[in-house]
Amino acid sequence: MSLDLDVAKTSIPESGTGGGRRFSINLRQSGIYIAFAAIVLLFTILTGGDMLAPQNISNIIVQNSYILILAIGMILVIIAGHIDLSVGSIVAASGAVAAVLMVNHDIPWPLAVLITLLVGAAIGAWQGYWVAYFGIPAFIVTLAGMLLFRAVTYNILGNRGIGPFPDEVRTLSNGFTDGYLGNIGLGALGGADLVSLLVGVAAVAGIVVTQWRSRAGRVKYGQAVEPFPLFVAKIVVAGFVVMFVVVQLARFRNLPWVLVLLAALVLGYSLLTNRAVFGRQIYAVGGNLQAATLSGVKVKSVVFWIFVNMGVLSALAGIIFAGRLNQANPTGGDQFELDAIAAAFIGGAAVQGGVGKVVGAITGGLIMGVINNGMSLIGAPSEQVMLVKGAVLLAAVAFDVWTKRRAGASR
């Protein structure tokens, strides 16, 4: 989650040369992290510190893991200028397929998981074909998919759930890493798993290296960078946050396996969007479709594959969700598409496309999770939770529009 903490970095090269302004803060990129910190602080105060308790932090991660997985795929779809309304139904259909394979037909869980992911890819390819090659707007195609794949789920499951799932699948959804090297003392904090702490140290080291390389690259090409003391302060704060979360998790039941999966996905997709040619093509398609076409980008292929990817991640989320409930049911994944879309927009995605980051989408998803969790801890009714989440989403999009107008007026 820490590859893109550079608040001055945008999804396209900056126009600054480094010779004029030496310090610039992109509110669009940094605002989400400030808002996240403020929301966590608010609920920490309102709950008397329960928000940051070890078990509660673990619950937030585990309970929102499938939304975070969907948010990773959704941010790519939105960056390319499209939308996917069908992911909740695909989650339900994928969970149903996995349940039938593992429970009804006793297929070994690794093979069943692989088949389920391939089914997700096929669903994504189906929708990607109509969007990319037939030219039907993604809103219409995925709206049809939302209805179609929910109907498929009902046809597979009827009005009953199927379970229980194998222990390995439940462990991936709800389980925790073992204390491989034992616990070490942390004074007043008690004991914590040494392996978990080493993972945290490695994550902090990764932050330092990636941020240092990013800064060095910007200096090399004459781009504006923040003053060195601010850069160091930013690294220190990020490192403290990572180690705090890891220590709290290690004090409870160690790292959730689903967090390990999420970390791998965030790392892989961050590298894809920041370093790979395909990732840059996604930004190009969403930023300026005509320019991307004239530049030789195979637009139809790019759009097709982002929907295939969305289908695979939806299937993965479906397996995680069904494993957590220990059964597949016809109503699974209901309204998940709304949470995933909200996470992407709250995390900094632009309505018009061309802008967004994987880490931003994860942060947006965590904001939604913290709001859900915090409102639950203070005993707020469900209608108030929906009210707050809707207000946060509206504020995020309004902030995006405001920053664009401000940037346009300053030119």
UniProtKB/TrEMBL annotation:
Top-level division of the source organism's lineage? Bacteria
Segments spanning the bilayer are 31-48, 60-78, 85-103, 109-126, 133-157, 184-209, 230-249, 255-272, 302-322
Membrane topology designation: Multi-pass membrane protein
CDD domains per the UniProt record, alphabetical: TM_PBP1_transp_AraH_like
- Quote the subcellular location field of this record: Cell membrane
Q: Which UniProt keywords apply?
A: Cell inner membrane, Cell membrane, Membrane, Sugar transport, Transmembrane, Transmembrane helix, Transport
* Keyword Cytoplasm in annotation: no
Asked whether the keyword Membrane is assigned, the reply is: yes
Q: What does this protein do?
A: Part of the binding-protein-dependent transport system for D-xylose. Probably responsible for the translocation of the substrate across the membrane.
UniProt name for this protein: Xylose transport system permease protein XylH
Q: Give the organism the record lists.
A: Paractinoplanes ovalisporus
